[in-house]
């Protein structure tokens, strides 16, 4: 059992206490799940703005703009490939992760390619309020590792932008094979291994270590830019599979219940939106030609599959 991260401790409630009053979004709610705080909305993703960091498509960082390095195996497309333009019809799916009965100020450490737009959705706080609380002018770029004050945060939500695409046919599930982790750390690690664009997965589900929430879904830059992954070369999966990793070593332990809740939500959301069959959700080790035991011998596939096929 891991303690909640310090920055969320004032918001944290024991699992199961999720019946909270929901803030009203200026979105069209498609459904509200029985748990009380699952939402899927058709709110438009903000249009791209080359001069603003307040969209899902931030300006490339100095790192991503640096000269290309040699391509190690399985690292995805060559630099220069362009991300699709975001459309106002993009769907944003949201689900409550940490519920709060009140509004509190929290500190958030910015992850790779995280934007003020995303943070405003995660904490249900306006972008303007976040800029003002941090003495930043609207549109000021933010950077990895920056600590931002989030005023009047009402808990925390997992927010997933669903971009138009017909390329995603599979989902490959991984573990990080580490006890602790967060996107910024693994991003650096994958850069050190020579992966262009760093973090090789599209999504990372945290386990409550290094200041991240237990079950927090971190959206990787590859997803925001709709780039190929660098997580499973076998079977051409880097090009046609969404890579989802959970922090943990599931040869040694089980994922946390919060991680499994978030994984189920993420898989169901992606399968539904992209028309991916539950049979096409596979573990890394199940891909022909992949010589690995990832996501670990103890990963609970049976319950995962039950959740995927249940209505
Ligand atoms: Zn793997």
Task: Tell me about this structure.
19% of the residues lie in helices and 20% in strands. By secondary structure, it is of the alpha/beta class. The chain has a domain of 144 residues: 3-Layer(aba) Sandwich (Lysozyme-like). The strands form three sheets. Strands 9-8-10-7-11 form a five-stranded mixed sheet. A hairpin with a 5-residue loop joins strand 1 and strand 2. The longest helix has 18 residues. The N terminus is likely disordered. The structure holds zinc ion. The site of zinc ion has 4 residues, from loops.
Radius of gyration, in angstroms, nearest whole number: 18 Å
* Cofactors and ligands: zinc ion
N-to-C series of helices and strands: EEEEHHEEEHEEHHEHEH
Supply the CATH class of the domain at 166-309: Alpha Beta
The overall pLDDT average reads 78
Please name the fourth-level CATH homologous superfamily of the domain at 166-309: Peptidoglycan recognition protein-like
């Amino acid at each position: 059992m891991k303690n909640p991260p310090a920055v969320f401790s004032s918001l944290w409630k024991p699992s199961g206490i999720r019946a909270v009053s929901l803030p009203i979004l200026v979105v069209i709610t498609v459904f509200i799940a029985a748990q009380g705080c699952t939402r899927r909305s058709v709110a438009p993703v903000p249009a791209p703005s080359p001069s603003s960091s307040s969209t899902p498509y931030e300006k490339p960082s100095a790192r991503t703009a640096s000269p290309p390095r040699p391509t190690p195996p399985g690292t995805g497309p060559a630099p220069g490939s362009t991300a699709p333009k975001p459309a106002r019809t993009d769907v944003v799916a949201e689900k409550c992760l940490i519920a709060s009965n009140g509004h509190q100020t929290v500190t958030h450490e910015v992850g790779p390619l995280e934007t003020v737009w995303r943070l405003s959705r995660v904490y249900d706080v306006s972008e303007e309020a976040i800029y003002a609380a941090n003495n930043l002018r609207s549109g000021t770029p933010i950077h990895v590792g920056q600590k931002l004050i989030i005023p009047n945060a009402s808990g925390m939500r997992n927010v997933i932008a669903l971009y138009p695409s017909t390329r995603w046919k599979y989902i490959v599930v991984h573990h990080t094979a580490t006890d602790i982790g967060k996107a910024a750390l693994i991003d650096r690690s994958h850069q050190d291994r020579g992966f262009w664009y760093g973090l090789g997965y599209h999504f990372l589900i945290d386990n409550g270590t290094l200041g991240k929430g237990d079950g927090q879904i971190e959206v990787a830059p590859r997803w925001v830019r709709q780039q190929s992954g660098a997580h499973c070369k076998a079977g051409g999966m880097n090009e046609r599979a969404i890579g989802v990793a959970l922090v943990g070593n599931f040869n040694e332990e089980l994922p946390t219940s919060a991680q499994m809740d978030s994984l189920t939500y993420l898989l169901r959301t992606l399968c539904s939106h992209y028309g991916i069959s539950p049979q096409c959700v596979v573990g890394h080790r199940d891909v022909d030609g992949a010589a690995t035991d990832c996501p670990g011998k103890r990963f609970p596939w049976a319950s995962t599959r039950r959740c995927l096929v249940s209505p």
